[in-house]
Amino acid sequence: MDPAVRASATGPARLLDPEFVEVGASGRRYTYAEMVAELASHPGGLADGPRYEASGITGVLLAPGLVHLTYETDFGSQRARRSSLWRRREGETDWRMYYHQGTPVT
């Protein structure tokens, strides 16, 4: 959620799994290529702009190399519940986000 990572040339590509899919709080579906290309311009990507504030982060190990994270975010007046799957492939040391979904909280 750090704007510097979101806007960097390598940050999104390093943290997202090549098979990444997101269903955003807007309902839009994003692929890995779309997210890598667009993340810096998404809300929360500007260094001097508003930032996502996360709370209530909980993780559950579903299987070796697969973790499910849930948390809530505040972004200005917008609140969302979020769920993401992070995986670490065999032989790799880095965890990458495989799936993410945001649901608006009214």
The percentage helix is 10-25%
CA-CA gap between termini: 22 Å
Shape: globular
Number of helices: 3
Mean pLDDT, rounded to whole units? 85
Strand content: over 45%
> Biggest sheet: strands, sense, closure?
6 strands, mixed
The secondary-structure class comes to: alpha+beta
- Based on CA atoms alone, the radius of gyration comes out at 14 Å
Element pattern in H and E: HHEEHEEEE
**Spatial strand arrangement across the major sheet:** 2-1-6-5-4-3
How many individual β-strands?
6
Uncertain residue ranges: none
Note down, in words, how this protein is organized.
The structure is a single chain. It contains three helices and six strands. By secondary structure, it is an alpha+beta fold. The chain has a six-stranded mixed sheet. A hairpin with a 2-residue loop joins strand 3 and strand 4. The protein is globular.
Can you lay out the helices and strands and say which pair or pack?
Elements (H helix, E strand, L loop, with lengths): L2 H5 L3 H5 E8 L5 E3 H7 L14 E11 L2 E10 L2 E10 L8 E10 L1
Parallel strand pairs: 1-6
Antiparallel strand pairs: 1-2, 3-4, 4-5, 5-6
In short:
The protein has helices at 3-7, 11-15, 32-38, and strands spanning 16-23, 29-31, 53-63, 66-75, 78-87, 96-105. With 106 residues, the protein is an alpha+beta fold. Strand 3 (53-63) and strand 4 (66-75) form a beta hairpin.
